Amino acid sequence: MKVLRPSNGIHNRLTRHQLPLPPRRRTFLTLPQLPTQNLTASRTLKYPAPEIYAIIADVPSYSAFLPYCTESQVTAWSRPDSNGKKWPSEAKITVGFKGFQESFTSKIYCAPGSIVEAVGGGAKTGIPDSELGHYDLNTPSEKTSNDENGILTHLLTRWSVRPFPFKPPPREGSALQGTKHTVPEDRTEVTLNIEFQFSNPVYSAMSGAVADRVAGVMIEAFEKRVGDVLGGDSASERVEKNGMEGVVHRGESP
Question: Where in the sequence does UniProt note compositional bias of the Basic and acidic residues kind (predicted)?
Answer without folding.
Answer: 235-254
